[in-house]
Design a protein that fits this description.
CATH class of one domain in chain A: Mainly Alpha
CATH architecture of one domain in chain A: Up-down Bundle
Number of helices of chain B: 12
Shape of chain B: globular
Strand content of chain B: 5-15%
Distance between the termini of chain B: 8 Å
Largest interface: A-B, 40 and 44 residues
CATH topology of the largest domain in chain B: Butyryl-CoA Dehydrogenase, subunit A, domain 3
Helix content of chain B: 40-55%
Strand order of the largest sheet of chain A: 1-4-5-8
Radius of gyration of chain B: 21 Å
Helix content of chain A: 40-55%
Oligomer: heterodimer
Order of helices and strands of chain A: HHHHHEEEEEEEEHHEEHHHH
CATH superfamily of one domain in chain A: Butyryl-CoA Dehydrogenase, subunit A, domain 3
Strand order of the largest sheet of chain B: 1-5-6
Order of helices and strands of chain B: HHHHHHEEEEEEEEEHEEHHHHH
Number of strands of chain B: 11
Number of domains of chain B: 3
Chain lengths: ~400, ~375
């Protein structure tokens, strides 16, 4: 990054900040999803799709992606500045998460030039929504055991089986799909292949899943003799596991190259400090209750520790012992923290903690109660916390698998 | 509260980290640690001389007093490395005494004492008392004016490495207000020191009976800087303790992993059991946050407001991380973990000792609540 023009970058950052301050949408009149996994209504979807397109057109999304594919062709520092401006102005999330953060960088990294031409621009503009077909009803965390069948017939693959927890499945035009092309391979991993599959062909059906919150946001996706062009295969047959693992590195942020912006609204522990000022205990604000204060401080220390981990990640000398330690434990640490923080916030509001989204008396429109239930999507999705602990134990600490 | 401290890392810190890691590994293998635990003095005088020659006693001391002119931020990686090797020397308490002098000593005291400390004269502080209060200004010991002299009385506890030190900075009440007084080893009467039996057997502390000690008034710290001096002592002690514990925690986790990857039971390497794997990961996640807090505390130490927040967070988190990592380490070593020979107990005892000095987790959180809300 030695060739970054400091002055140019500063100007870009100032412009971005001004742009978001002016263009950040105000209250749309309905509750916006806090994460890309919570898009439950068409109204929310259309709103966020328009917003992403607008941000991209202004040059603040994909700023570091290649120019010929719709990116800005600038150094990463420029996109980081734009993302910071987004955050500072409390802008809504980017919608096309799986395209922007997982598929996009994967294609730029391992895809063919044709793939890039075909897909990258639509990812940035939110014209083409992407979803992910990894988990199956019988194979959640055990991803390597995926059973959806892809059988080559002439110039096509015929797909049969089912995928589950498809985020934005009902809106997606494409799916990154892990399927079994060879049931007789020497081991379960070698039989897998990776597809950039269209969702618009006959035989693909999505059925919405009702979440524990009572809302929608995921689908189960059924493939019944669905035929896709053979050119949708990424890499070669049998390379599915390798490509899926690379995708997970992008998903978990262990590898960089994402389009930028954020797809999950970040919160800091001070939001619950504010909540504690509004909640009451024995005639006084909860913030004055010694027990509540102590627990609040614990959360603030942890939030700060996680933030400092990110800052420390920049200094190689401070990560010499286990260079993959912070990247690989990040998901586990953050998602578990978020779950516990929401849980505490829910109880902090006292009697009002009994209200749920939809009641006019619910504190912050039920943000915390719903937040707690939704927090499980992150501690379960993308590999449960238990699987994450196995990953950290085996790949960072060197503990044996068996 | 916007600023809770930020993390930075200087080239000097990087250089010292590398040098200290090498030095400590070489000079303080575990057999040496165990051997020194059995001795009365508790440290190797030749290693101490080398530390002085390396200039590490003057890292945070300005050049005009013979030091290197950096700051305590650069001491942190050295302390961390010493913690990792469980190296026992008066480095902790001597550095703390320098910080106290720099914050509250008179110009004459700084000129007279700091160059000697930098050259290798150990120094310490006598703060704690029977009341066990972590508020350093809750003092019962007395300094009574007697002409141009002060007569000291009362009993101090947990005076680190007092038998080896040339200087002792004592807190006492003078005319009912807290004061700090620097005394020399020759002013301490025979029999005034009693070695204490403490939970961390790699460390040495003493009870100091002040009765009979008479010093000139010039031994008093600058009366106008007392508040600053007490604050600096409190924060520097907690920063150094945090750095030492972060190092110990890294070593403890390595030690546990070593056992988990070699010990076999029921035909399996025990580290393959998730019941042992998952808590080890939890300990590791706590440790990584602890280390980040330590380097933020070091970097932010001199920032008004943020410095204190960052230091107290670091102390709370390192205590949490080391206590848990070592507690699980004892458990996961099974029967061996219950023996004196297993090093896990050394790490657990280290955390327990640091919890007892300058404030435990709950105390730090209480102070943080006052600072934050």
């Amino acid at each position: 990054m030695a060739d970054v023009d400091r002055k140019e970058l500063a100007e870009f950052a100032a412009d971005a900040n001004a742009w978001f301050a002016e263009n950040r949408p105000r209250d749309p009149g309905f509750m916006l999803p806090l994460t890309f996994m919570e898009v439950g209504t068409d109204q929310q979807f259309e709103f966020l799709r328009d917003w992403q397109r607008k941000v991209w057109e202004a040059g603040y999304l994909g700023a570091a992606w290649p120019k010929e594919h719709g990116g800005g062709g600038l150094p990463q520092a420029f996109q980081d500045a734009a993302t910071a401006a987004m955050k500072k102005n409390d802008a809504p999330i980017m919608l096309n998460a799986i395209g922007l953060n997982w598929t996009g960088p994967l294609l730029l990294d391992m895809g063919t030039e044709d793939d890039r031409k075909k897909y990258i621009k639509g990812i940035l503009s939110a014209e083409d929504i992407w979803c992910q077909g990894f988990s199956e009803p019988e194979n959640g965390s055990d991803l390597g055991n995926a059973q959806l069948k892809a059988v080559r017939e002439g110039d096509e693959y015929v797909l049969n089986g089912s995928k589950i927890w498809t985020t934005q499945g009902n809106y997606a035009k494409y799916m990154i799909l892990l399927a079994r092309t060879n049931p007789d391979a020497p081991n379960k991993y070698a039989g897998l292949s990776f597809f950039l599959a269209p969702m618009t062909v006959p035989g693909v059906e999505t059925r919405p899943i009702r979440k524990l919150t009572g809302e929608f946001g995921f689908t189960q996706t059924f493939f019944t003799d669905a035929r896709i062009p053979a050119s949708c295969l990424m890499g070669e047959e049998g390379q599915g596991w390798l490509i899926a693992m690379r995708t997970l590195e992008y998903e978990r942020g262990a590898r960089k190259g994402q389009a930028g912006g954020y797809v999950i609204t970040s919160f800091d522990a001070f939001q619950i400090v504010d909540l504690a000022k509004r909640a009451m205990r024995a005639g006084a604000p909860a913030i004055d209750d010694p027990v509540m204060r102590d627990r609040l401080v614990e959360f603030v220390i942890e939030a700060q520790g996680l933030k400092l981990n990110n800052e420390r990640g920049r200094f190689a000398a401070l990560n010499q012992d286990r260079p993959m330690g912070l990247p690989l434990s990040n998901k586990l640490a953050w998602t578990e923290f978020a779950r516990r923080l929401n849980e505490f916030a829910m109880t902090l509001t006292g009697a009002a903690g009994g209200y749920y989204v939809g009641d006019e008396n619910a504190v912050d429109e039920g943000l915390w109660t719903r937040g707690y239930l939704n927090a499980f999507s992150a501690t379960i999705g993308g590999g449960t916390s238990q699987i994450q602990r196995n990953i950290v134990a085996e790949h960072v600490l060197g503990l044996p698998k068996k | 509260m916007d600023n809770l401290g930020t993390l930075g890392f200087s080239e000097e810190q990087a250089d010292l980290m590398e040098a200290a890691a090498r030095f400590c590994r070489e000079k303080s293998p575990m057999e040496k640690v165990r051997q020194l635990m059995e001795t009365d003095e508790g440290y190797d005088a030749s290693v101490w001389r080398e530390i002085a020659e390396l200039g590490w006693l003057g890292i945070a001391v300005p050049e005009e007093y013979g030091g290197v002119g950096l700051s305590i931020a650069e001491v942190a990686p050295v302390m961390e490395a010493m913690g990792r090797s469980m190296m026992a020397t008066p480095f902790f308490t001597t550095t703390l005494a320098s910080e106290a002098l720099l914050a509250g000593g008179t110009e004459a005291q700084k000129k007279a004492v700091l160059p000697k400390i930098v050259a290798g004269a150990p120094a310490t502080l006598a703060l704690a008392e029977a009341n066990g209060d972590w508020d350093l200004r809750n003092i019962d010991a007395l300094a009574t004016a007697d002409g141009d002299n002060l007569r000291l009385s009362g009993v101090k506890r947990f005076v680190a490495d007092a038998a080896a030190t040339k200087y002792i900075i004592v807190s006492a009440r003078l005319d009912s207000a807290p004061a700090l007084i620097i005394i020399e080893d020759k002013e301490v009467p025979d029999g005034a020191l009693r070695r204490e039996t403490i939970i961390d057997e790699t460390k040495r502390t003493y009870e100091l009976t002040l009765d009979g000690i008479v010093v000139p008034r010039s031994a008093l710290f600058d009366a106008l800087k007392l508040r600053e001096a007490f604050e600096r002592i409190d924060l520097a002690a907690n920063l150094l303790a945090s750095a030492e514990m972060a190092g110990a925690c890294a070593a403890c986790i390595d030690y546990t992993i070593d056992y988990l990857t070699t010990r076999k039971q029921f035909g399996r390497t025990i580290g393959s059991y998730q019941a042992l794997k998952h808590p080890t990961v939890d300990a590791y996640v706590d440790y990584e946050q602890a280390r980040s807090h330590v380097y933020a505390a070091a970097h932010s130490f001199n920032d008004q407001g943020a410095g204190e927040i960052a230091v107290r967070m670091a102390k709370a988190q390192t205590l949490k991380a080391l206590s848990y990592a070592a507690d699980r380490s004892i458990q996961f070593h099974g029967g061996f973990g219950f023996t004196y020979d297993c090093d896990a107990q050394l790490y657990r005892r280290r955390a327990a000792f640091h919890a007892s000095q300058f404030g435990d987790e709950a105390w730090q959180r209480r102070r943080l609540a006052e600072l934050l809300f």
